């Protein structure tokens, strides 16, 4: 049977989610636990990769198993063997035609940006940093130019292997953190994201906020379809995979209930 897992992790100590030779990754830690449970190798599939230092509130995974273990049993068994900065939040048995990557229709990322030259060392792994002047109103105005369907060639890393770079952004918003005025919270939702796309978008918005160019210049950057015209990648530490939704109401209900637990 196919089991879907909702996973949370602090990415600070990991070289991203996907397994890499000679590097510690989230996928490796989870697969090691499944190997112990099954006495053989078990492959897990993810809704999307996250880079080194990036975190997740709601990464969605699946694996296939021939073991008859209750869903709460999977949560307990896996969590007992993985590091404390990775947690399986919940599990659900699904139809074996469901795929966490290919059936996704909407993803939401959040980004936390700290404003200031000096930063609390207890925040450093969980926020990006902007050391210059930050014009909140201009940054907020820039967000609207990303909404809709666009070719995001200017906002992905050059080494991406994906040929079709057209994506749709459904919403993009920002506000000041309720507990810390020095932190700006961004949230962006789309039908999919290219390699480093969110980080490059945030880095470009930072350039607008710093006065490098006006908000409407975003339209020209999109039209250029060339990475060299957009801003730098924002720090990985501020990025969080928040939620993934699917063309499956039963799975979405399961995901929404899980998120409501935290």
From TrEMBL:
Domain Pseudouridine synthase I TruA alpha/beta: 8-103, 142-247
Key words, A-Z: Isomerase, tRNA processing
InterPro entries in the cross-refs: PsdUridine_synth_cat_dom_sf, PsdUridine_synth_TruA, PsdUridine_synth_TruA_a/b_dom, PsdUridine_synth_TruA_C, TruA/RsuA/RluB/E/F_N
Active site: 51 (nucleophile)
Reactions performed catalytically: uridine(38/39/40) in tRNA = pseudouridine(38/39/40) in tRNA
Protein EC: 5.4.99.12
Domain of life per record: Bacteria
A GO term for molecular function: tRNA pseudouridine(38-40) synthase activity
Coiled coil: none
UniProt KW Nuclease keyword: no
Broad class of enzyme this protein falls into: isomerase
Binding site for substrate: 109
SUPFAM superfamilies according to UniProt: Pseudouridine synthase
Protein family according to the UniProt entry: Belongs to the tRNA pseudouridine synthase TruA family.
Record function comment: Formation of pseudouridine at positions 38, 39 and 40 in the anticodon stem and loop of transfer RNAs.
Listed HAMAP family: TruA (MF_00171)
Subunit composition and interactions: Homodimer.
Designated name of the protein: tRNA pseudouridine synthase A
Organism: Gemella sanguinis
């Amino acid at each position: 049977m196919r089991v879907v897992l909702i996973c949370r992790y602090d990415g600070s100590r990991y070289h991203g989610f996907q397994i890499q030779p000679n590097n510690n990754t989230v996928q490796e830690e989870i697969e090691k636990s499944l190997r112990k449970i099954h006495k053989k190798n078990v492959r897990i599939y993810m809704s999307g990769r996250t880079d080194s230092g990036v975190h997740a509130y709601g990464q969605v995974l699946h694996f296939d198993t021939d073991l008859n273990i209750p869903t709460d049993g999977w949560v307990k068994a896996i969590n007992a063997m993985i590091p404390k900065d990775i947690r399986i939040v919940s599990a659900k048995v699904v139809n074996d035609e469901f795929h966490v990557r290919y059936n996704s229709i909407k993803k939401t990322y959040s980004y936390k940006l700290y404003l200031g030259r000096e930063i609390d060392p207890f925040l450093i792994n969980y926020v990006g940093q902007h050391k210059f002047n930050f014009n909140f109103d201009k940054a907020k105005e820039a967000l609207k130019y990303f909404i809709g369907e666009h070719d995001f060639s200017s906002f992905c890393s050059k080494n991406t292997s994906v040929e079709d770079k057209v994506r749709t952004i459904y919403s993009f918003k920002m506000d000041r953190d309720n507990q810390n005025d020095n932190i700006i919270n961004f949230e962006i939702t789309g039908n999919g994201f290219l390699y480093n796309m969110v980080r490059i978008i945030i880095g470009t918005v930072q350039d607008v906020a710093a006065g490098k160019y006006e908000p409407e210049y975003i339209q020209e950057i999109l039209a250029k379809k060339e990475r060299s015209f957009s801003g730098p990648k924002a720090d990985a530490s501020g990025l969080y995979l928040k939620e993934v939704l699917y063309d499956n109401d039963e799975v979405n209900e399961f995901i929404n209930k899980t998120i409501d637990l935290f």
